[in-house]
Amino acid sequence: MATTRLDRTLVARTALRLLNEVGLEGLTLRAIAAELGVKAPALYWHFKDKQALLDEMATEMFRRMAADLPAVAAPDWRDGLTAAMRGLRGHLLRYRDGAKVYSGTHFTDTGYAATMDAHLRGLTESGFTPRTAARAWFTAYSYTIGYVIEEQSMFPVAATAGGAAAGAEGIDLAARAERLAAYPLAAGAGDEIFGNHEEGFESGLAAVVAGIALTVRPSDT
Fold it and tell me: Residue 141 and residue 117: Cα distance in Å, rounded?
């Protein structure tokens, strides 16, 4: 049995480490307890259910990424927002199912607020109103989260320490095209959808940022 005193942070860090081995579906309180050398009921002193644990895991993920997310600075808000979303994606890819863990959770402290405030301030200093700054940020954020969820669903593997996907089994595009031979446009879309994820992310993000400039902050046009 473990002699280290359990606390929320230790449990969350252990869960994140185990996540890369078993994925979100295999991440149970029983498995985490076994990793810590305790009985599962010991974890319920700290987390009432798995969702509460996921909230703490997402909070720990943010603590780790906050220092690495470049601020959105005036006047190059496009470059700043793009860099921030690249940083978010890179961190999420460090964990198997990282985007699913991060999405829809509630941070367990206010540590995120200073970073969020700094990003929004960079946008407002670039000419956004507080409302449109929030909309711009959330639009780019939602695209990034959604993209990584799809990316990791197609290649459900752990990531290397550097954040690059490792061991992903590619989709057989030729077999897919053969199955969809009667639907040539759908068949041809495979290369774009399932091909180079890095290039796909960058292309989509550029479209999102350009759209923000046209609709959320039309004075840029």
Answer: 15
Residue 93 burial (CB count, 10 A): 22
CA dihedral 193→195→199→205, nearest 10 degrees, is 20
Per-residue pLDDT reduced to its tens digit, 53-109: 999 999 999 999 887 776 666 568 999 999 999 999 999 999 999 999 999 899 999
The pTM of the whole model exceeds 0.90: no
For 56, list phi and psi in degrees, rounded to 5: -70, -35
DSSP 11-71: HHHHHHHHHHHHHHHH--HHHHHHHHTS-GGGGGGT-SSHHHHHHHHHHHHHHHHHTTS--
Helices (H), 126-163: 130-154
Separation between Cα atoms, residue 88 and residue 30, nearest integer Å: 30
Q: Are 201 and 193 in contact (CB under 8 A)?
A: no
Q: How many alpha carbons fall within 13 Å on the CB side of residue 176? A: 14
Q: Per the structure block, which two tokens stand in for 140?
A: 């780019």
What values do phi and psi take at 72, rounded to 5?
-80, 110
